Amino acid sequence: MRVRWASSGWSAATAHEGKTRAGASVLSEREPDVPVTSRSAQAAATRRQIIETAQRLFTAHGYQSTSLQAIANDMGLTKAAVYYHFRTKAQILKAALDAPVEEMTALLDELAGMTSRQERLEAYAVGWVDFLVRNRELGTMLLHDPEMRAASIYAESDGRRRRVLRVLFGNSPTPAERMAYVMCVWMLEGLGELSDLSDDDLRVTLLLTVRSLLAMPGDAKAGEA
């Protein structure tokens, strides 16, 4: 009896082990779950692609003439897929302006740590020109589309403008220094006039211009000749 019980017990254990192995085999053949981080990265990549596609279409056809459906068609997506990330064109436009704003915020953070005025001005000139060259399509959009120009106003807030002036020129910038900065900012909308230049030639031209603007004496008081 004990032998038969032992045999039966062995058979049960063996059967259980076989089922366990079979289960493990099935689990190993299943498609692995996509990690949350991978899904987040994929969503971020899609979001960036939507913004880039929208910018290109805004430049080619204008903001008003570009629909969410047109953006989706260009990307080979459904409108619902685009709608998942952006409910309106205005949200896409704001996101397109957010990225440049973040770039300039990072540049300002870097400049704020410099003690030499001349070093700050030169670093700003190089950083601003690099920014302009990277975002030359945005400049073209601003030049040709009134709605884009109006939307861009939000990106140049009073607080940000005051911070740039303070970082570059100190707490009491002169009228000439304030105007030099304004002229540097408005160069973004003038990029469309230089669309025939290569990136390298554009960089040289802009750097010469910005350096000239920032080299203004800036010490003339209001009302003085």
UniProtKB/TrEMBL annotation:
GO molecular function: DNA-binding transcription factor activity; transcription cis-regulatory region binding
Region feature Disordered, mapped onto this chain: 14-42
Keyword Repressor in record: no
Name of the featured protein: TetR family transcriptional regulator
Domain HTH tetR-type: 44-104
Keywords of this entry: DNA-binding, Transcription, Transcription regulation
The species this protein was found in: Streptomyces adustus
DNA-binding region(s) in UniProt: 67-86
PANTHER family registered for this protein in UniProt: HTH-TYPE TRANSCRIPTIONAL REGULATOR BETI, HTH-TYPE TRANSCRIPTIONAL REGULATOR RUTR
